[in-house]
């Protein structure tokens, strides 16, 4: 008998009924009825604390969600991931980013081979390379120490390292500055090259496939810039290093073999910041701090692997997302880091979550009949309060939000951190409790408005409340806590994909755009008309060609 589909499971149907039983329930009342609510819906692990009491749930809800997780064999699927099973089913590969931070001695095998020796030797090569650059033992072609690192890569070869190096800015080496180039928009690389000196710049070419058009085109520009500004072919090896799983293409491209750091097929791009793709981070914060980053992630890995589901932070967060996305009709989820250094977190989690779970067929290739990955958005708090929090408070759409804030700051100026913290708490409290019509009326009465004015304005000042949020806390943005935080979201994403029965580790959806782009590029650049397609694309190509013909 075939495995019942997700929505056929009795645990799924029980959640539909449970959600119906909560309609009309307001979190404000749940807090008043349950003085121990905060303590009950609070969990911590690996230096990360989660207050999930400001959610649309009663003490009966999590047991229902946990029952669904067990019905979907989440404990077994967690073990399968750590064991190195081919959980990337469509590409028949393991997903072993956890191996990159497996600091113990236990082996992890892929196709019968223990991969840990190569992981460890690559980490050792990184350590030596980082030391040689930071100690100035490895210098530029005019024998000056390097001052700038330019990382050229896109997607997972960009967003993860960029997030972590920005998150750990307080740990940066005094001399080394790090820049990222990703976009094929020539302005991106132009704006970086404008401010650096070829004599003291190290280029890191970051590409798992070494076939990504944006990265290869940008690398060509960087190489030409280097050759036209004092460099020559013999000096390329001093200034260009690559990280890739495709060593042959990198060598064919002109990267010296000894300057190539490996990565592996069993690491997805969006899960690769822990590998040599993390070199920009390691160069700026140093290997000791990079190893702390790995150990923070490893601590979260161990928690995820060993903790009972009910105490398991990634499982709890994953199930809350399922609760809102599949039973309350939420299409989005906001990531709101109240920490300037973590402002890059939403962008990284957009790729991590949306490229992993933005899928519409099950691992068996059957169309899903339920919603899968949400739209991930967000930005730094408190800035967002002055931009998009209006929709969170009074909009018609539900977007659960994660408020993420350190208890301490790296930069104690004035009362700033207390004010930031107060803002974070006041936002989640306002989203939870709202403001009733009577409260709005009373407020306007206290301001001295007359009865007509009150009745006119009061409806506009009502805040419905009952908007779910998580508050995620940690001591401070350190290598360990940043490592644990990112790993927390990696495992949350994995659990959601496992429940939705999708392959969270492939990304076939990005292929069509690339394929269509080849023909369009030909038609933009060449005189030939190429085959006609739709009138929009044809018309737009024509506009581009006319503009550039006029310019020619
Ligand atoms: O690292 P690369 O092979 O250059 O790939 C860079 C990015 O492009 C691909 O199209 C995928 O969308 C991403 O998952 C990947 O991280």
From TrEMBL:
User: Primary place of residence?
Assistant: cytoplasm
Among SUPFAM superfamilies, the record links this protein to:
SIS domain
Per the UniProt entry, what are the Gene Ontology biological process annotations, in alphabetical order? gluconeogenesis; glucose 6-phosphate metabolic process; glycolytic process
Enumerate the active-site residues.
Answer: 355, 386, 514
Enzyme class per UniProt: isomerase
Give the catalysed reaction(s), semicolon-separated. Answer: alpha-D-glucose 6-phosphate = beta-D-fructose 6-phosphate
Q: What biological function has been recorded for the protein in this entry?
A: Catalyzes the reversible isomerization of glucose-6-phosphate to fructose-6-phosphate.
**Protein name, as recorded:** Glucose-6-phosphate isomerase
Q: Which organism is it from?
A: Marinobacter nanhaiticus D15-8W
Name the gene that codes for it: pgi
């Amino acid at each position: 008998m075939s495995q019942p589909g997700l929505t056929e499971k009795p645990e799924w149907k029980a959640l539909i009924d449970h959600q119906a039983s909560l309609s009309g329930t307001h979190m404000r009342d749940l807090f008043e009825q349950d003085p121990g609510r905060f303590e009950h819906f609070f969990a911590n692990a690996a230096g990360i604390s989660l207050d999930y009491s400001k959610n649309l749930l009663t003490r009966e809800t999590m047991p229902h969600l946990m029952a669904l997780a067990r019905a979907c064999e989440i404990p077994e699927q967690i073990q399968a991931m750590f064991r190195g099973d081919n959980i990337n089913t469509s590409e028949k590969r393991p997903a072993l980013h956890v191996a990159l931070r497996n600091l113990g001695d236990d082996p992890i095998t892929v196709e019968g081979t223990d991969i840990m020796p190569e992981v460890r030797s690559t980490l050792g090569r990184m350590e030596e390379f980082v030391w040689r650059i930071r100690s100035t033992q490895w210098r530029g072609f005019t024998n000056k120490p390097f001052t700038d690192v330019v990382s050229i890569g896109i997607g997972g070869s960009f967003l993860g390292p960029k997030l972590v190096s920005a998150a750990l800015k307080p740990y940066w080496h005094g001399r080394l500055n790090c820049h990222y180039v990703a976009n094929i928009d020539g302005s991106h690389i132009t704006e970086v090259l404008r401010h650096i000196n070829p004599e003291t710049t190290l280029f890191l070419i970051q590409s798992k496939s070494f076939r990504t058009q944006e990265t290869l085109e940008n690398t060509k520009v960087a190489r030409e810039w280097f050759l036209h500004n004092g460099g020559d072919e013999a000096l390329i090896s001093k200034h260009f290093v690559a990280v890739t799983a495709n060593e042959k293409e990198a060598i064919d491209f002109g990267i010296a073999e000894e300057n190539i750091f490996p990565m592996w097929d069993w690491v997805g791009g969006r899960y690769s910041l822990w590998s040599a793709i993390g070199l920009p981070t390691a160069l700026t914060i140093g290997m000791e701090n990079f190893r702390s980053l790995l150990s923070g992630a490893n601590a979260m890995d161990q928690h995820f692997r060993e903790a009972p589901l009910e105490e398991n932070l990634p499982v709890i967060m994953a199930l809350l997302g399922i609760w809102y996305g599949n039973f309350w009709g939420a299409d989005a989820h906001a990531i709101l880091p109240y920490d300037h250094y973590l402002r890059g977190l939403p962008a990284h989690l957009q790729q991590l979550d949306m490229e992993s779970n933005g899928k519409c067929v099950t691992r068996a290739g059957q169309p899903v009949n339920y919603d899968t990955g949400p739209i991930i958005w967000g930005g730094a708090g408190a800035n967002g309060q002055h931009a998009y929090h209006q929709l969170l408070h009074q909009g018609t759409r539900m977007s659960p939000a994660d408020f993420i804030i350190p208890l301490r700051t790296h930069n104690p100026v004035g009362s700033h951190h207390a004010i930031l913290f107060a803002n974070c708490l006041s936002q989640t409290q306002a989203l939870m409790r709202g403001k009733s019509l009577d409260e709005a009326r009373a407020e306007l009465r206290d301001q001295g408005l007359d009865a007509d004015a009150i009745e006119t304005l009061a409806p506009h000042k009502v805040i419905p409340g009952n908007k779910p949020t998580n508050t995620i806390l940690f001591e401070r943005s350190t290598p360990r806590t940043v490592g644990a935080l990112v790993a927390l979201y990696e495992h949350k994403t994995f659990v959601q994909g496992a429940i939705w029965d999708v392959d969270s580790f492939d990304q076939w959806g990005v292929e069509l755009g690339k394929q269509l782009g080849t023909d369009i590029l030909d038609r933009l650049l060449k005189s030939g008309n190429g085959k006609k397609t739709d009138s929009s694309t044809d018309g737009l190509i024509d506009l581009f060609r006319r503009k550039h013909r006029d310019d020619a």
